[in-house]
Amino acid sequence: MTLKAWCSENAEAIQHAWKYFVEIFLVVYLLCVGLGATATLVANFPLVDDSGKATFSCHCPETQADEDNGRDEGSRNKASKGQDDNDDQSDLASRFCWNVKSNDQGFLLLVLAAGVTGSFIHAAQSFGAFLGNRKFKLSWTVWYIMRPWIGGVLGLSIYFAFRAGMLAGSGNGMNPYGVVALGLLGGWFSKTTADKMQEVFETMFKTDQDKLRKDKLNNATPVLTKIDPSPVPQDADEITIFGAHFHEEATVLIAGEAVTPTSQSATELKVSLKLLATRPAAGTEVTVVVHNPEGLKPDSNEVALTFE
Fold it and tell me: Which residue has the higher pLDDT, 33 or 71?
């Protein structure tokens, strides 16, 4: 037996094995990225004195010396010795410590790590839910790989907007707890963060030119409201699906089998049951879903359909 023939014969087993490998890989990947970002965040969290001033303990020697020009040599040596003692006591800090050149750079790295941590929470919750319900699809692998880094950059972006005064609530005093909360929530609720950034940008650079463009990407989620007839009589060869936001190249999934509509519009799809490889048996209840070829959420809600 040739390799090609063996692969063809065992295609289903190979697909299951590959999916299982990807699932294990994503679990390990998300845990490494999420816990690594969290450990880095904790190890590099700045020291806050009684006056509220934050100081990162991992300054470059040159920068630290410049900041300590007003201190005498003895005090500087004492502080350095105390810092060395703290480093010896914290193995976590020694492994994940940043060698930042200034507090500003420290805050940037802090909010980046917080954004990655927030995105890890979102990705882990989503992946765990889909995996637990046995609905994970391999096509989402890239999304889960990119998700933590997207959240990190979003957290960084909204931090820049706060520092620049583009968003309400920004101020001159930098509270490290507030900075971490900003990055964490920005990465966790990335959709809300992206919408807020879009609102800021559209307010600053308002234009009506986009309304004149044609053939724009349709991101609306399809909505399935009604199927006629329901239930389906034995002699019926066609069903009509009513709803909204149907793409011109939408397909209909009946019990998981994709069928191309014979007639379609944005609110109505006609599907010939003769196109099904196997018509559901009498008394069987199946799910019907409309799938758009594009969009952030291309699948509609599920509607149950009974065949008589």
Answer: 33
Interacting residues of 245 by C-beta distance below 8 A, sequence separation 6+: 218, 220, 221, 222, 223, 266, 292
Q: Please tell me the predicted confidence (pLDDT) of residue 31.
A: 93
DSSP string for residues in 119-146: HHHHHHHHHHHHHHTT---GGGHHHHHH
Q: Which residues, in sequence order, are bridge partners of residue 238?
A: 272
Q: Give which of 122, 130, 108 is closest to 41, Cα–Cα.
A: 108
Element (H, E) at 164: helix 141-164
Average pLDDT over residues 158-172: 62
CA distance 120 to 37: 9
How much is the pTM? 0.52
For residues 72 and 24, the model is more confident at: 24
Q: How far apart are CA 18 and CA 15, in angstroms?
A: 5
Residue 278 has which token pair?
């196997």
Domains and CATH numbers, the chain: 14-200 (no CATH), 223-306 (2.60.40.10)
Length of the chain equals: 308
3 state SS for 274-298: HHCCCCCCCCCEEEEEEECCCCCCC
Q: How confident is residue 170, by pLDDT bands cut at 50, 70 and 90?
A: very low
